[in-house]
Amino acid sequence: MQAERPAAVAPGVLGPQLTALVAMLNGGRYRLSQRAVVSLLAAAWGIPLSVGGACEQVSAALERPDAEAQTALHGSARANLDETS
């Protein structure tokens, strides 16, 4: 018997914290290649993950925030950032 996934939990093999770590290591602050991230996960924590699997997880996690940002941007009177304002 297998329990149903709660609606608030995104599908995939990684939890939210590991997904965030993959995103931060790859496209965020550390700019590691996808292969380097996958290699680090395997070597440091024994987490086997394919390059494609890592990309899919992060992409799926960012779908809703991206859509929300797009909606906010299209509804905004201004579309630029300025630290002096």
Could you walk me through the main structural features you see in this protein, from its secondary elements to its overall organization?
It is a single chain. The model has no long low-confidence stretch (mean pLDDT 84). Helix 1 packs across helix 3. The radius of gyration is 17 Å and the shape is flat. It starts with 15 loop residues before the first helix and ends in an 11-residue tail after the last helix. The chain is built from three helices and no strands. By secondary structure, the protein is mainly α.
Low-pLDDT residue spans: none
Distance between the first and last residues' Cα: 57 Å
Overall helicity: 55-70%
* Major β-sheet profile: none
Shape: flat
Let me know the number of strands.
0
Measured by DSSP, the beta-strand proportion falls in under 5%
The secondary structure category is mainly alpha
Give the ordered list of helices and strands. Answer: HHH
Average pLDDT, all residues? 84
- If helices are DSSP runs of H or I spanning 4 or more residues, what is the number of helices? 3
Radius of gyration of CA atoms, rounded to a whole number:
17 Å
At a glance:
This protein has 85 residues and is mainly α.
